[in-house]
Design goal:
Chain lengths: ~140, ~140
């Protein structure tokens, strides 16, 4: 995202964010969901908040599950969760595979260990379902 | 950590021997190559780039052949989890107990390919070559 379009309050450590799983392989290899991809290096990893798992999943054409993360626990890893929309945020501070692959893989592992599944199984986007704001990086 | 003294000449010798005895077609390697092919043909998911795919085929074939010839515990190696990412990379992951090895075959020549290994609290990356991968996979199965 290019920057906050609206003023959004910072997330509290007690807040929960959701990450939709874009690939089926992420379900059994959850760390893959927390590796920065080329288009995410400047923004971070896309997450949703203040919405249901279904709304989070509807930011994608199809998804294979949703995991939740505690904002406070993400911050204990030296990362941050920065909202840019009323129900969209980015996990920032992640090392990139290109700059520091050892740290990128390790931090992805730590995030995967903290994540909890809140929904599993293939789901395709339905037009009439509730939607969180679209996330370009997901 | 003990590092096996694999020299380039030994690598060449082993590969030549593997080819000569047709040992490249053994079961774990065949299963792995079939998995890569499925990944390449899966239109429902991200697909590996040609660069990543052929690099993976070459390095994994060489590494598995070396493992089979040099390290007798090769048969304890599980099939890796295979995936592709949005940048066209091929990703492999082997886990045995608290040891884990991942390989990133970059989607493009200018992106990084590497081996990552972890046994808490130690984690590192190393340059991706077939002999380095053979050594690292032998570390995974040795006890």
């Amino acid at each position: 995202m290019s920057g906050p379009a609206v003023q959004v309050p910072a997330l509290e450590c007690t807040d929960i964010v959701l990450r939709a799983l874009r690939a089926s392989s992420w379900v059994d290899n959850l760390h893959e969901a927390f590796l920065l991809r080329a288009g995410e290096r400047d923004t971070g990893i896309s997450v949703s908040y203040n919405c249901s798992p279904d709304a989070c999943r509807n930011t994608l054409q199809k998804s294979y599950g949703v995991v939740s993360l505690h904002v406070g626990k993400v911050r204990t890893l030296g990362l941050d969760v920065v909202p840019d929309e009323l129900s969209h945020a980015n996990i920032t501070g992640l090392p990139s595979k290109e700059d520091n692959p050892a740290e990128a893989e390790h931090v992805a592992n730590l995030l995967a260990k903290q994540a909890r599944f809140v929904d599993k199984g293939l789901k395709k986007r339905t037009e009439d379902a509730p939607q969180a704001p679209p996330s370009p990086a997901s | 950590m003990y590092v096996y003294p694999l020299e380039a000449k030994l690598v060449q010798f082993c590969l030549a021997r593997a080819s000569a005895t047709k040992e490249l077609s053994d079961q774990p390697l065949s299963t792995l190559l079939e998995g890569l092919l499925c990944l390449r043909n899966d239109s429902d998911e991200w697909q590996p780039s040609e660069f990543a795919y052929w690099n993976a085929v070459r390095i994994l074939s060489e590494a598995y052949s070396l493992l089979k010839l040099i390290f007798p515990r090769y048969w304890g190696l599980p099939s890796p989890a295979l995936s592709a990412d949005s940048d066209g990379a091929v990703r492999c992951r082997w886990v045995i107990a608290d040891r884990e090895v991942r390989v990133n075959f970059a989607g493009q020549p200018h992106l990084k390919s590497y081996i990552y290994f972890e046994q808490e609290p130690v984690y590192k990356t190393e340059a991706l070559t077939s002999d380095a991968l053979a050594r690292r996979l032998s570390w995974l199965v040795e006890r």
